[in-house]
User: Fold this.
Amino acid sequence: MVSPTDVFLVSGGARGITAACVIGMARRFRCGFVLLGRTPLAPPPEWAGPGLDDTTLKQHIAVAITAQGERPLPASIQRMWRDIRACEEISATLQAVTDAGGRARYICADVADTARLRAALHDVGSISGIIHGAGALADRRIEQKTGADFDAVLGPKIGGLRSLLAVAPPDTLRYLVIFSSAAGFYGNLGQSDYAIANEILNKAAHQIQREYSACRVLAMNWGPWDGGMVTPALKAMFAQRQIDVIPINAGVEVLLTALAMDGPAVQLVVGSPMRPAPASLTGELRSQRSSRQLSLAHNLFLADHMIGAHAVLPATAAAAWMIAACQQLHPGYRLRRCDGFQVLKGVVFDAQLADRYHLELTETAKDAPQGLVRLDALISSSTAAGRPRYHYRATIELGRDLLAQPILAELDLAERDASDGAALYADGTLFHGPSLRSIERVLHLDNTGLTLRCSLPSLSAESQGQFPAGDFNPFVADALFQACLIWVRRRYAAASLPLGWASAEQYLPLAFDTPTYLTLVVRESGEQRLVADIAAHDDVGRVALQLRGVEVAVSHQLNRLFAQV
Assistant:
């Protein structure tokens, strides 16, 4: 935990978003800060009194320049206005830190110039933490980039971190917090240099944490904040691309929470995915074929999806592979539907596991005016004799926009003969291991269906392996089939296996660490199969994912294997 005796060296910390974080830390931890910036801190001229709006201040600047016998050129006025406002902001940050219960000192220094930075810090004393928030932008398409652009962007980020660690080595630090960007994790149009710089910071954070375990390292991959470098025009563009901006208070709270935790996460991605703008749907219908090797070692979550002695690929993971591949073919397009999903032959991690699994995508329709594209997807492999073996198929629809979110027609969250979800994983009803145990409570269950409350803690990227949660979250969505298992067990004292679904409409991606309710309505049932509709929704009935015609095979023979888990 950060203590009042800790002192943080903060690049870019006197203004903007980093300053907001520093003030929040001062309020929470009562610690000290040395704030670095390139603006010389000077008192404002007498004629630039407090409270002047921008127009009046620029008029006063023009008068002052004229009084000096110079022409008040717009560039000169803008430069002086910018310097005055920067000094006002720095002074306001210093005062806010003091008012919040912390301590702050400002030093003018170029964070990328190691020698001058060391000289500027000669009398600072012991530093126990670093926050590297400095950065610069030079947005333009990569073919228009210059070497100077790359130097201007990479200098503060990479050179700045190198200088900070030279004056405060990691073996002397308790904390190293690096303000990276979601642009480094996802990429972003016009920011190739910025993405490169931030991804270098991410990799450096992982390496430093490995080599200096006593230092708590955090690489905060921030999405766009509601402030800082996000102008109203950028904010409108993000809204068009369905990228949420981070409210300042919420972002500060995320940092404070991360600092208060012991780990183990080094890299935290905060905010919405940085989606590319969807391109126009032009040209002939295309097809694509790709393949991958599957292994337990690269998919740690499979250890929690064992039936008997063997791991089985969740049907939702296969769907996630198909959906992600379609979105890679059409960057920026959102998942709307996944229809006609069939489990032809599930992938079992046993002696028959194929060397490679193939995914074939075939575009079947493009509607440029509506921004819709439909693709058929098929996952297959080859037997030892070279014959094709088919595993999963579906038809996927992507669009520029999500489907309009409906409200569940009949919402019933009342508890009637309710039961705890944990018991279902213990008594053989559900075979899932810890990383897939999302059922918290069965609210009610009868012959017509059931309602569950669920929440699945976040899985690490390493655990998610080759099937990472994206627009479609296979780990949270697996709970919909767990709902079938629960109902079949209660009704027929049997287990079940998924066969597929007729249609799936996604209105909002399912998220980790989020309370979700599942309502299952039985359409047909018997000793051989169950057909049901399942909706994932919130506590007021807003539907995120609707599966219709979900079909599972009822099997008494599987009871023995489930009981072995």
In short: The first helix runs from residue 16 to 29. The chain has a mean pLDDT of 92.
